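**Polypeptide and fold**
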Amino acid sequence: MKKNRRFIVESWLIEYQDIFNKNGLDRFFKIPPGTIQKFLTHDRKLNDKRIKRAYRSIKKLISDFESPEQNKGSDQKESNLR
């Protein structure tokens, strides 16, 4: 596995730990309960399989948020509300 993916996932989790529910992230990444909490509070290393799964989920979350196709639809809905 690329070290870059590990760095991205670990730094993202550390940076946004105050925003997200740790148990919710476990469910979102489809990993065993308590994994994110153990990583953040007890400094346990995430294995490569969980890093890959979290990386794909984070990437999908960000791309869905920034997707221009979805933004067009929401802009039209907002203009209709005005």
Summary: The mean pLDDT is 85.
